[in-house]
Amino acid sequence: MILKAGYGLDRNGFIVSDVSKDKINNVYLPCIQDSVESLRNLFHSQLHSVYVYGSVARGEAVAMKSDLDLITMFNGKLNSINLAELQKLAGELSKKYRCLVRDVGIAVAYYDYTVDPSNYYESAFLKELCVCVYGEDLGSRFGPYKLTSEIAIRFNGDICEVLTRTLNRLEKASNKEFKTISQNFARKLIRTYYSMVMARSQIWSTRLQEQSEVIIHHFPDKEFIIQTLLNWVDDPPMNRETVNEFFKKEGKWACANFTEEAEIFS
Asked: pLDDT tens-digit profile of 72-81?
């Protein structure tokens, strides 16, 4: 199917979110509930709300292959001890539910930053990609959003930082870690390329395959690259030199061209 301008948007051109509580498979509810209760017990009054995003929120998760991705919203800044506790909790939950999810990831967000009007476009991530499973849903305060360069830049404008961090992590990673890091960065690159053509295409999708179709339409010379990344999301090679050189080359291209391409609006 060839996607056309307006796909994923309402008749006024606003994004139609494809995540909801109804789409979360019941099999993931015990893990989500356990995660929320553990966060409440650990952080008490500091915890404002918890959100699920990614494949679980879209109803596309595959048992033992997909991650449970959480965003935890806090009322105040966490100190280094709190952050270490959070990381430990994520590890414990991942181990406890390894028969269900590949990993439980817990990202941190802060209330004051999120509700600051200057971060309105950044909050599109919360509005369009996240499902609130505990506390006040801050996403209801934002939007509706149209596909603009601001959205694209807020979503994936951090590619240069992520590239540097990923290359450093790959260098020190165990074989198991190497595979997971490679899969995550392959996803990141696809989403970054899609963000570069999001505004001009006026096509909204969170599905990697559909995003890839949009990318290839605008960057046909990237077809082999995109197909390689899709393959690596499923099963990345363990040849470290091959992976590092590929990520380095494509990551640098994305860094050099991201803003200019993302700001093109047709």
From this structure: 999 999 999 9
